[in-house]
Design a protein that fits this description.
Elements (H helix, E strand, L loop, with lengths): L15 H11 L4 E4 L6 E5 L5 H11 E8 L1 H6 L15 E2 L3 E3 L9 H13 L6 E11 L7 H11 L6 E6 L9 H10 L3 E4 H4 L4
Parallel strand pairs: 1-8, 3-6
Antiparallel strand pairs: 1-2, 2-7, 3-7, 4-6, 5-6
Length: about 200
């Protein structure tokens, strides 16, 4: 099934926490999102992605590296959905992707940054192939969804709603608590924003 066009828009005054996160995103820096349904994530504007930021996400956040896309963007790229079976609360993923050109194995930091940039910049699916090493998920109006919160924050910052994001895994292999996510953000000099404060924007 190829996605059809849907969008979710609301406007609300930003809290100080969200304003700081928006400033960081505009400057091309990463932000930690806590309180999402699937656990905390490190995210940034996809247009600012670099091999260095991919390497940081892979090394420090340790989880699945992917993108957050609007349904419209996913439809433009011709991405089909992965089916959900008995897990309606899980993130809504599409097929995985890879840049058509400029990559080698696809798994290196440089290759994954190239794939994210290709998916961000193109308006059709011509610059990407499937499957690959980047895993897009789609916003769907879930106020605690990783994709929804990331894209709402980018819109609030006045940036295109395409995010690079990486789920977080703690040093012992478990999903970090929100307290641990905030400690992680503080240790790395990142802004941390809670999904509950972003929810009115979704």
């Amino acid at each position: 099934m190829v996605l059809q066009y849907m969008e979710f828009h609301h406007k609300i005054a930003l809290t100080d926490e969200m304003s700081a996160a928006c400033d960081a995103l505009v400057e091309g820096r990463m932000v930690v999102l806590a309180g999402t349904r699937a656990g905390p994530v490190v995210m940034m504007a996809a247009g600012a992605i670099t091999p260095r930021s991919v390497n940081f996400m892979a090394r420090e956040a340790r989880g699945l590296l992917g993108m957050a896309l609007t349904p419209r963007k996913a439809a433009m790229l011709g991405l089909s959905l992965q089916p959900r079976r008995g897990a309606a609360e899980r993130p809504l993923y599409t097929v995985s992707i890879e840049a058509r050109e400029g990559v080698e194995t696809g798994i290196s930091s440089a290759d994954r940054a190239r794939t994210i940039r290709a998916a961000t910049e193109c308006e059709t699916g011509d610059m990407i192939v499937t499957p690959g090493h980047i895993f897009p998920q789609i916003s769907e109006g879930d106020t605690r969804g990783q994709a929804d919160c990331a894209l709402a924050l980018l819109r609030a910052a006045g940036l295109p709603p395409v995010a690079a994001l990486c789920s977080m895994i703690g040093a012992e292999g478990a999903t970090p608590s929100d307290t641990e996510a905030r400690a992680f953000a503080a240790a790395h000099g990142l802004v941390c924003v809670d999904a509950m404060t972003i929810a009115p924007l979704v």
